[in-house]
Amino acid sequence: MKTLRDPDCLLADGLNAIREQFQVPQDFAPEVEAAAQKAAQRVPSGHRDRADMHYVTLDPGNSTDLDQAFAIEPAGRDWLLHYAIADVGFFVDPGDPLDLEAWRRGTTCYLPGAKASLYPKALSEKAASLLPDGDRPATVFAVRVGPDGSTRLEGVEKALIRSRAKLAYENVRDDELPAGFAAIAGRVKAAEEARGAMRVDPPEQEVARDALGHYILQLRPQTLAEQRNATLSLATNLAVADALWQAQTGLFRVMPGASDRAITRLRGTAKAFALDWPADMALAEFEKRLNPFDPREAAFLMAARRGGGGASYVPFMAGEKPWHAAMAATYCHITAPLRRLADRHVIAAAMAVANGQPVPDFAADAFPLLPKVMAKAEARDNQVDRAVVDLAEAVMLSGREGERFAAVVTDLGEAGARIQLCEHPVVSRVTANGVVPGAEVTVRLTRADPVRREIVFEQIA
């Protein structure tokens, strides 16, 4: 769950209801668990020994499903990023019980304090995870990052790597990270700005209690280490996407830009938070001015992420170059095969292309099928995500029925006016007459029902 955490398990009953409603998969069938236990005993034989290289991982401190590790070395004026990705394909064979179950699940589904993993723990949190307790099979992508932030895929190999440290976003020190980590991040970020990318790093919503014992939603911005780490993944994905496009194969991640209606709604949100967004300034430029450590500006960044067009997958199609508006580039996903079904297939294609070999049939045959499977899984994840936020909002406001709140209308629709509360990161609907987007209104809370995950307001001014 990337938009809300619940470290004190304040929402346990409601979360269980969400799991049931959206049929979030739980335990694996015995034959799948047995297949995972057997696969975990495999001994790599076709991997090069790269255990002497200084790889580290960087993730949330409590993570155990570690998809990526990295090592960095200078290469003249460039940096050479060695990005190791868990070799899930070594453990999972096309058509075996693990593969079939992964096709059924599509993704790892996250909830506060829990997750429904794509693969059993014997793989996802042990044998296939790049933990620092021994050699692990990986697919290693060598990516050259130039002074201008440009990226190029130099090579791909199967290798045994050994992570030297499991570093955590929350407390990592600069001296624990490889030389070049900050430099690569700066270069990739500068290249994003030069091409007009709209990628934002919104904060997480976290459930907590205030001094009076009320539930509240507070915002936790990404750490600098977290933001920099994301640029390593971005650099790898961009380099691989370019190589696959040139080879006329692959599966790409695409996303349209924010619509005019979304921009209008976001301007209403900015007004609700008293943010000065000049009328002649583009959304991407405005976002760059915002401080994710400021609660109002952080809440706007979250609204902007929700307001953009949804991302999806498309296979290579001759004459149609795939485009991701937030990245302002051709883009693909390869860096999370323990958590996304599609990545394992794109990795196999990239490995083949980089080494002058035909793309394996299991990957090529999967590319036309994966968009529908991934869309279904992501729709479930988004529904779960929205339900959890609805639950948290209802819990937070429960007991405050009758109170008045200042709000701004951000959008109009058949279900009423969408409003953004001015003092809380809460979005709702209200029946309102004679209002336009951007109008300031006063609403009264008439119902906050955590069981139904519902909040109801009425307009009073």
TrEMBL record:
Domain RNB: 47-356
InterPro entries in UniProt: NA-bd_OB-fold (IPR012340), RNase_II/R (IPR001900), RNase_II_C_S1 (IPR040596), RNR_Ribonuclease (IPR050180)
Name the record gives this protein: RNB domain-containing ribonuclease
Taxonomic source organism: Novosphingobium aquae
Lineage of producing organism: Bacteria, Pseudomonadati, Pseudomonadota, Alphaproteobacteria, Sphingomonadales
